Fold this protein.
Amino acid sequence: MSAVLSPTISPTPVVDLGIATLNPQTFKVACSNCNLRELCMPVGLSEAELTRVDELVGARRRIKRGEVLFRNGEKFSALFAIRLGFFKTCVASEDGRDQVTGFQMAGEIIGLDGIVNDHHTCDAVALEDAEVCVMPFDKIEELSREVNALQHHVHKIMSREIVREHGVMLLLGSMRAEERLAAFLLNLVQRLHARGFSRSELVLRMTREEIGSYLGLKLETVSRTFSKFVEDGIIEVKQRQVKIIEPDALKNIVNSQTCL
Amino acid sequence: MSAVLSPTISPTPVVDLGIATLNPQTFKVACSNCNLRELCMPVGLSEAELTRVDELVGARRRIKRGEVLFRNGEKFSALFAIRLGFFKTCVASEDGRDQVTGFQMAGEIIGLDGIVNDHHTCDAVALEDAEVCVMPFDKIEELSREVNALQHHVHKIMSREIVREHGVMLLLGSMRAEERLAAFLLNLVQRLHARGFSRSELVLRMTREEIGSYLGLKLETVSRTFSKFVEDGIIEVKQRQVKIIEPDALKNIVNSQTCL
DNA sequence: CGCACGGTTGACCTGTATCAAGCCGGGTGG
DNA sequence: CCACCCGGCTTGATACAGGTCAACCGTGCG
């Protein structure tokens, strides 16, 4: 169902090599020796293609916790591959409501929303100190005319996002609070596990309110539902640390129609 | 905010020219003289490019009301441009719940969900007799390596779908029943108007239950909300014919935070 | 130290779901 | 041609999940 990734990929701490560039926030980098390559880039490229793909990444950029990577209305010019850290994206309606549309972690690509109208239509905010690879979109288009694997990869990434959002629509349209939270936890831990982290323990990088916004619930409901899961012995919660004790119980909650 | 399209584009009745082909359901066709071209295809192509793009459409295919164009799990091989008719797409969860993820009309492209895993992940069902142009995806990729405008167009279509789904997430995650239905009606009529239909009258091609599924509501709630709008003099409803009397009232309902 | 922000918990309220009855209109078969 | 039937729709009565409001707690930061 979801992409199967080598669980041996684990982010190494980012070492600042002190390579000076024009912009203090950015510095040169290559995909060819990046340990997240298998997440962002197509596999099975030739040596020649790989060096071409290296040129895609103009620079890296660091974003501190709480800062925005891009904002609704800003000119779109590049996609971003998350190298390190954790983001949320959110849209706002005219009357000020806003909705978290996703949480993104290392190896994932953000910015796809900007392609249609050449302007971003959501905000991307770092939930912890982060680092992204900036990939100018015109370069992506140029190169993907020549490297078929890259072309198809771009299409797959966009299609994957569409399918993910279908899943969120299903969640928001038909699930009850417990089901939503259970699905959320399972999804998070699965993605983290694909990146070499624990299958049962995770640290939430977002507030209860942000979780609630994503899941279409109020923060109090999120909190109560966490408490219920703890009472039932399904998970343990200490602040933002969550330990999944009974993964099967969570799975049962997700697909149990009406929790009969 | 949304694509502005010439309101003069109006679908002509499809005349079956009786051109026999191998498959009785399919026959050859060209984009270059299709009056929906501006909706599916990039604008500003040269003559040469236009003839190349004509090759994209392998065939047309007719789908009767109630029949499926593609189904969850089926092998993905092509995108479909709707030439005539009205579709819904829906996803199902393992436990049998299902969720309408969108309603698509003439000029729109469906099938994007299939690209990631080479298999479709949702069902596309015709809500009225329909006709689509079948565009094999490998041909699309091939041609978009050569025709830059086509490449960018494909990217835009996918990005547009992502942005649309963001909007649905906002709706499902934060709006109340009245707001959802008002937003739904405004969206439908706006898209129909862009196709040359009335700005105030529309015919619903879907049941209350399908509307409810899309909006995350039960059919009774949809029905009651329609009734309320009628009582308030905002719309008139006769079966599936809807006439919008007070578009501004609908707009106010959509962005009124909590209907204070 | 103390403030402020995030989180928990309780009491109560309300919007929507659920269950149930009945209506309407279009299609089918006698 | 009419009667019937059935699917889609409406409407009412009631239930309940989750929202709202409010008080309080813990922890980490200035």
Q: What stands out?
A: Chain B has two domains: 31-163, 175-253. Residues 1-26 of chain B have pLDDT under 50 and may be disordered.
